[in-house]
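Exercise 3.2. Students should predict the tertiary structure of the chain below and write it as structure tokens, then compare their answer with the key that follows.

Predict this chain's 3D structure.
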Amino acid sequence: MKTPREILLKRHAPVETKLDALRQKVLGEHAEVATASGSRESRPALNLSFVVRKLWQELIWPCRRIWLGMAAVWLVIAVLNLSPDKTFTLASAETAMPNRETLMALREQRRLLVQLLEPITPEIALPAVVPPPRSEQRPTILFA
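Answer key:
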């Protein structure tokens, strides 16, 4: 029994010669164009408009929704920063002097903070008793 691949190859075998002829024709035309233009390669000129267009196509156009969203956010931020806000300026100008109890509490907190942050003097460590070398130790024998 023949496989489906064999059946398809047998059915399309007469077309192979036509495809080969078409392939040779296209390659011949391409070779003629290459020899007519000389030895220089045809690549796009690197100028500013080409670079700008490529940047637009590669960076901005695929993510246009994100860029529009960011532009809208910046626009809102700019509008909020430029809007006149009278209450903010008045609130910062009217600061009251703290009363006596508040000043006393702040002084007490500062005093406690200084006590907590002052360096602690390390205790003098007593030298430990060094045992004699093992060669000088006497074994102790316990009898039960």
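Discussion points: The chain has a mean pLDDT of 82. The helical segments are 4-36, 48-60, 64-82, 86-93, 100-117.
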